[in-house]
Fold these 3 entries.
Entry 1:
Amino acid sequence: MKTNQKCPKCGSTDIVAGVELNAGGANTVQLEVCRKQLGGLVQPVEARGKATAYLCRQCGFVEIYADTPAQFRNATA
């Protein structure tokens, strides 16, 4: 959807980019990679970045892409 402006689910080209996602009252959604230890303890965030959503107005399918994916290359979960 990001590059070809076509929905992979229904084939529609009625795509809107930059849809704002609200999570817990935040203005934007942030992607986070946290390191986890045995027993489920979560360590500090390894990487954090903003995301952009693309919405198909025909069927409602949404794809979310990291705005700067390179910053997640060295992050380990």
Entry 2:
Amino acid sequence: MAHTKIIEEKIGEGLVRIGGMTKEQVETVLKRQKEGDKRLFGEIAVALGFVDIQAIIKYLKSTHKDTPNARPG
């Protein structure tokens, strides 16, 4: 039986891929989370002014192109 390998992209990697954030900004957000900030990655990134909500929406839409039940935003 063949297995399909699914690789999940982390949001920080995706935002770098679409030009929404730099790798250094992603590292800063991840450091904050590691130090105990309980907010979601996107919440921290927006609060620090690294990215706006529209870039996060663009990224999320790019990850769900093939989802049959996805509704247009």
Entry 3:
Amino acid sequence: MGKHIDDAVGQGKEAFGKATGDRRTEAEGKVDQTKAKAEDAADKFKDKAEDLKDKAEGAFESAGEKIRDAFKRD
């Protein structure tokens, strides 16, 4: 399931568990919500890592161009 669906299902399970006194269902709901939050955090981390990689590649390319330009002038 998608992380948003896991979160919604988890909220429903937790609410149902609380309403019926079913602690196991309530706990399963909390686990589903935690899983969705962890997946969301992992996706954000992955996006940030890709952004940093792109910035680093750009910086290395720029530095390489500057070095090549410096040698062309001499």
